[in-house]
Amino acid sequence: MDQISDANSSQTTIPENDHLCKLILYMDVPNTKIRVWDVIILVPNLIFLLFLGFRFNRAILKLRATSSPIFLAFYGLVVLNTVMSVVRCIASMLMSAAAIEGSYIDIVLWVTVRFFLLSTEMSVVVFGLAFGHLDSRSSIRYVLLTTSFISFGYSTMQGALEIFQPDKNVSFGLSDNRIFGHGGMLFWCVSSVIFTLIYMVIFILPWTKLRERLPLPAKKSFYAYVLLLMLLNLSQAVGSGLLLFNNLQGICVVDVTTCIYYTLFTPLVYVAFLSDFFSIAQSSIMFSYKAQIEDNMDDDTVSLPHQQSFSSLKTDSDYIYQGNGAYDSTQFTGGGHGNMLYSASLQSPDSITGYSLNSQTIDIPAPMKPASDK
Known about the structure:
This protein has helices at residues 20-23, 36-54, 56-64, 69-97, 103-130, 137-164, 185-204, 220-244, 250-273, 275-279, 290-295, 316-321, 337-345, and strands at 3-4, 12-13, 355-356, 361-362. By secondary structure, it is mostly helical.
C-alpha cells in the first residue's frame, strides 16, 4: 500500500476509503516519496519551458526588431510564469523526497505561483480593454503595477486563510499534513463566481451598445481567451461549491480545472497573443518610425513622423488585440512613400529594392524630360 510521510511518524498508512480524486493529490509515485500531483503539474510546464528555451534566441531577435514594449512584457510574463511553476514543482518534489516537513513552504510556493498567474490573467484583460491603444513603457508599467497590487491582495488573503483557517476537506485522511486548499472552499467558490461574472460581462460586450463607445479588441483569440477562463472559473465555482457542502464529487471537478489552469494557462496566453508575432517573417516591424519611437519611449503616447499621412496608423498593441488586419496597408490615409515604407516594414529590409536602412533613402526615378521642339 502507498505510504506518505508524516511529521509525527515516519510512515502513515493511506486510508483505503479515500476518493480517487482526493487520493491522487497526495499519493506517491511507486518506490519514491514524490507526489503524483506534482509530477502531473511539472511535466507540461517543463515541456513548455523547453519549447521557450529552444526558441529563445529567435524570440530575442524578434523582440529587438520591434520598439513596442508590449511584446516584451507579454513574453516576460509567459517565461516568468513557466519558470515559477517548474520551480514550485521541483521544490515540492525535493522536500517530499527528503521527507522534509515543509507545508508552510509549499503553501508560500503555491500562493506565489498563483500571484504571477493572476497578475498575467488580469493584465491581458485590462490592457486589452483600457490600454490597447497606448503602446509605451509607462502605460504598461501602470497596468502591471495595478494588476500586481490586486493580485497581491488576493494572494495574501488566500495564503492567510490557508495557514490560519485550513479547510478540512483538503486534509489527508489520518495524517496531520495538508494539501494546498486554495484558501478554502468558501473563498475559492466566492472568488470563482466573481471572476466568472467579470469574464461573462467582457465576453458579451461586443453585443451591447457599449461597443460603440469602447475601443474593444477585435481579435477573436481575445474572446476565446475570455470564454475559456469564464468556463474554467464557472467549473471551479461548481466544484468548490459541492465540496463546501461535503459532496466529494466536487473534488474531481476542482482537480481537473486546477490541472488545466496551472499547466495550460501560460501556453494559452502565448498562443493567443504572441504566436502570430513570432511566426511572421523576420523583420523590423514598422521600422519606418522605429527611431522616432525610441526617442519617445518613456512618453505616455507615441509621436509618429508624418502624422498627416499616417493618421490611422496602428500601434503594435493593436497587432495583439485587433488581429493581423491592424497592419493592413490599405488602412492608411496617405499614399506614395508612406505606403512604400509601411509595406517595407512588414518585409525583410534586404528584400526592398531601392531602400537602404543605412542610407534611409528611397531611389525615385527621375522625371522624364519633355521632348524638345524641332
